[in-house]
């Protein structure tokens, strides 16, 4: 019996009920009649796990046995969203679960609402990682996602007087039924101390003598493929003290000291850093990065390779994908293991390392590129600093060999920056060590090659490539928009969910009035559903017949939420000044969703301004209810799944050359919203695919932005030259949205007039003109719906399955396991 393969329960409502009640009674230890909602939720989750378990164990066995080349995806963030529905969909269990629970008088929908989403990420980068592990499993690629099991995820956002207030995200307070703790697979992670050299039978070797260590305890999460019988693993590490409790100190009465090691250790995986662009350079952040990558490397080498594995073959067995620079300390750690622990000679180890890593860059903002002072790195990871120095030395020797003694180039390319403080440029380390470096959209990858890392593109021909981002259609179409999914399947049959480019077959339906009517009805139903959610969640009402104009993303000046605010204020000013009749205003509700990094003051001011403008506009009878602003707090994956299917207009208005890709833009287009946007990030590829007639383009292109900043940009000139712009800014400056107190938003206004780093004023006129085109287009609902259908039909390219296939072809060479 012990050797019998694990089998899933029978796929029937009766078997499902039996397993559910078994889990409730024997795992939760309660009877249904006495059970709490959390008990029922846990029992349901465990039942779904039971149905997926056999596949998981079988997949793990096959991946190990096959020794096929696999991907280790190293990411400091995974923005997973709720798990229940996705696991029900992947297992094809949704219908029997519904029926089974109903037969017990339990509402599946109540249990859905009970789930707290694991907010283990900030925004784009974290959500992309979640989409990618879903696609890796659905394509059947041997792979493991590695990350950190933060005890507290991204903060919960509340508004007090329109201002952001952060609350801790205690997502684990009721426990998480989807995780499997594996303390027996814990890894010891060292820190601090010093290094020394020693003689090893005539060979001088270096070794690290750490100062202290912690335990990294893994928690496994199922990542089921979509109805393909595959389940991959996401392994997240949690920190605990090696010696949790010191009885001797305790007996001496210093209770606090007795548990200090534990408290200290736990802080490593205590909380996610809520920054998504400006690193704070905190030591704990570096501790987090080293903690999870060291644990992951050791775990892979220990658990996935046979004892006598020939390490020289590692490049045929694994590729570590670095999700931005956050995990790049993995490179010197890998070298340390090969050279110091496996006693491999440096050159052989480096030759292997350079084939086992690849780096994805997700940003263009210089301030977002991580640099670590050598003082800090040397103190926390002394051996790693030595290794980085040697990597850099040999690299610069090669640069000199190629270009001669070009000191400027040497200084520009050195992994070690001398100013302002001697630091390690993590993006340069990742670029030198990576077999491949990719950007996340065509324009982004081009700018990396031409500008940000041009010296490296010149030195490493063929190293730079592009993989345009994608999103999983399982969560962001099938689960978020069942109405549209049903319509699509009715029109073109099944199969599109794992072959999204088949959406092209919808093109002819754009000219089918009946189909358009059904499509418009689905959009209207999604709006009603959103209205129910927002009313219950935040007491907001979405007015019928309003165009839903949506801007949801992290709050950052380069994303230009301020441009959207100026459009709202201009429309408002037009009416209250009497220049525009309210009846001429296209009924529109503007929905914002945005968290600001707690330390990002200007971003928090802009959130305050949005709420302040909203409360004035929403309550001014002169607008006759034709313009509304809604800003639900705590935008997250769960809210995105309700807002995106209801949207008519998708705001993708960043300054050209600043948004690496964007992924929200893809989700909106796939859900039948039209985009108003600049030629930035993946907007360019969306516009190329949907066609200029079905995309509201505005603003400067990236070269025009460069040209303007080269000429010297003086925002106040645009203020002077544009009466509409001046009226809008003056209204804000006047205190009209701050009870007459001009000081409240003065910093925002003066920044716009005298700095405006992201050229909001320069693109204002073009934006307003584009919004007028939007109003005109929306007046013709048939034409609008036709464009919306074509947006859906032509954006199948933006599936994360296609992105993963590109990574396999261009970077990983890890074909799916048959
Ligand atoms: C250390 C601070 C920090 C934290 C996170 C980041 C991320 C790279 C920021 C991020 O999420 N970037 C976004 O990544 C998405 C996925 O590729 C892109 O679609 C977005 O354009 C990009 O802003 C930078 C710096």
Automatic annotation (TrEMBL):
Catalytic function, reaction form: [(1->4)-alpha-D-glucosyl](n) + phosphate = [(1->4)-alpha-D-glucosyl](n-1) + alpha-D-glucose 1-phosphate
Keyword Glycosyltransferase appears in the UniProt entry: yes
SUPFAM superfamilies in the cross-refs: UDP-Glycosyltransferase/glycogen phosphorylase (SSF53756)
GO MF term list: glycogen phosphorylase activity; pyridoxal phosphate binding
GO biological process, one term: glycogen catabolic process
PROSITE patterns: PHOSPHORYLASE
EC class: transferase
Alphabetized UniProt keyword annotations: Carbohydrate metabolism, Glycogen metabolism, Glycosyltransferase, Pyridoxal phosphate, Transferase
GO CC, any one term: cytoplasm
Cofactor: pyridoxal 5'-phosphate
Sequence positions bearing N6-(pyridoxal phosphate)lysine: 667
Claim: Cytoplasm is one of the keywords in the record: no
Protein EC: 2.4.1.1
Family designation: Belongs to the glycogen phosphorylase family.
Role according to the record: Allosteric enzyme that catalyzes the rate-limiting step in glycogen catabolism, the phosphorolytic cleavage of glycogen to produce glucose-1-phosphate, and plays a central role in maintaining cellular and organismal glucose homeostasis. Phosphorylase is an important allosteric enzyme in carbohydrate metabolism. Enzymes from different sources differ in their regulatory mechanisms and in their natural substrates. However, all known phosphorylases share catalytic and structural properties.
Protein name (record): Alpha-1,4 glucan phosphorylase
Classification of source organism: Bacteria, Bacillati, Actinomycetota, Actinomycetes, Micrococcales
């Amino acid at each position: 019996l012990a050797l019998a393969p694990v089998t899933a329960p029978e796929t029937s409502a009766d078997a499902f009920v039996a397993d559910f009640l078994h889990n409730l009674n024997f795992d939760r230890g309660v009877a249904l009649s006495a059970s709490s909602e959390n008990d029922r939720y846990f029992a349901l989750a465990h039942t779904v796990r039971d149905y997926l378990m056999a596949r998981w164990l079988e997949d793990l066995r096959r991946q190990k046995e096959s020794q096929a080349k696999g991907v280790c995806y190293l990411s400091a963030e995974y923005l997973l969203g709720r798990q229940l529905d996705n696991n029900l969909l992947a297992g094809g269990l949704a219908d029997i679960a519904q029926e089974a629970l109903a037969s017990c008088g339990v509402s599946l929908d109540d249990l859905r609402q009970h789930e707290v989403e694991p907010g283990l990420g900030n925004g784009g980068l974290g959500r992309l990682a979640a989409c990618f592990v879903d696609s890796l499993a659905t394509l059947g690629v041997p792979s493991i996602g590695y990350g950190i099991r933060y005890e507290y995820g991204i903060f919960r956002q509340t508004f007090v007087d329109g201002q952001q207030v952060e609350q801790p995200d205690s997502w684990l307070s009721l426990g998480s039924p989807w995780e499997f703790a594996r303390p027996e697979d814990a890894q010891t992670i060292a820190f601090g101390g010093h290094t020394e050299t020693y003689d090893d039978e005539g060979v001088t070797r270096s070794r690290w003598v750490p100062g202290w260590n912690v335990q990294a305890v893994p928690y496994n999460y199922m990542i089921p493929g979509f109805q393909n019988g595959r389940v991959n693993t996401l392994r997240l590490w949690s920190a605990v003290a090696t010696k949790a409790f010191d009885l001797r100190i305790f007996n001496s009465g210093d209770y606090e000291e007795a548990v200090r090691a534990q408290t200290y250790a736990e802080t490593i995986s205590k909380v996610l850093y809520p920054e998504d662009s400006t690193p704070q350079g905190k030591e704990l952040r570096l501790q987090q990065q080293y903690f999870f990558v060291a644990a992951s490397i050791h775990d892979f080498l220990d658990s996935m390779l046979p004892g006598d594995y020939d390490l020289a073959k590692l490049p045929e067995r694994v590729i570590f994908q670095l999700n931005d620079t956050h995990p790049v300390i993995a490179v010197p750690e890998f070298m340390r293991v090969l050279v110091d622990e496996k006693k491999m000679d440096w050159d052989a180890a480096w030759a292997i390392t350079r084939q086992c890593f690849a780096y994805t860059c997700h940003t263009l903002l210089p301030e977002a590129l991580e640099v670590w002072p050598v003082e800090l790195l040397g103190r926390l990871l002394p051996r790693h600093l030595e290794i980085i120095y040697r990597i850099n030395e040999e690299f610069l020797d090669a640069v000199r060999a190629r270009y001669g003694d070009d000191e400027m180039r040497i200084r520009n390319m050195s992994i070690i920056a001398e100013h302002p403080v001697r630091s390690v440029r993590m993006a340069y380390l990742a670029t030198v060590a990576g077999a491949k470096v990719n950007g996340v959209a065509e324009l982004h990858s081009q700018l990396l090659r031409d500008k940000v890392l041009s010296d490296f593109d010149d030195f490493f021909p063929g190293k730079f490539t592009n993989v345009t981002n994608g999103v999983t259609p399982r969560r962001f179409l099938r689960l978020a928009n069942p109405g549209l999914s049903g319509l699509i399947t009715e029109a073109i049959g099944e199969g599109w969910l794992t072959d999204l480019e088949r959406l092209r077959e919808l093109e002819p339906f754009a000219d089918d009035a009946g189909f358009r009517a059904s499509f418009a009805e689905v959009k209207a139903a999604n709006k009603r559903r959103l209205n129910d959610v927002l009313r219950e969640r935040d007491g907001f009402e979405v007015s019928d017949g309003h165009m839903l104009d949506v801007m949801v993303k992290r709050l950052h000046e380069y994303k230009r939420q301020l441009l959207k605010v100026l459009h709202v204020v201009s429309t408002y000013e037009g009416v209250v000044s009497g220049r525009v009749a309210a009846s001429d205003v296209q009924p529109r509700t503007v929905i914002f969703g945005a968290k600001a990094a707690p330390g990002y003051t200007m971003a928090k001011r802009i959130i305050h301004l949005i709420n302040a403008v909203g409360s004035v506009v929403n309550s001014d009878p002169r607008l006759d209810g034709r313009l509304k602003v809604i800003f639900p707090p705590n935008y997250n994956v769960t809210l995105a799944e309700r807002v995106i299917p209801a949207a008519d207009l998708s705001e993708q208005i960043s300054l050209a050359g600043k948004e690496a890709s964007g992924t929200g833009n893809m989700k909106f287009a796939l859900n039948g919203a039209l985009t108003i946007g600049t030629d930035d990030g993946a907007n360019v590829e969306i516009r190329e695919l949907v066609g200029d007639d079905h995309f509201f383009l505005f603003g400067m292109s990236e070269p025009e932005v460069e040209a303007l900043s080269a000429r010297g940009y003086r925002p106040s000139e645009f203020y002077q030259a544009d009466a509409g712009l001046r009226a809008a800014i003056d209204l804000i400056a006047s205190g009209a949205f701050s009870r007459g107190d001009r000081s409240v938003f003065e910093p925002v206004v003066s920044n716009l007039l005298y700095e405006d780093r992201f050229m909001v004023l320069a693109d204002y006129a073009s934006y307003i003109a584009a919004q007028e085109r939007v109003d005109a287009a929306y007046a013709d609902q048939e034409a609008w719906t036709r464009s919306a259908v074509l947006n859906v039909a032509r954006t199948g390219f933006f599936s994360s399955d296609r992105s993963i296939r590109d990574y396999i072809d261009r970077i990983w060479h890890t074909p799916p396991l048959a």
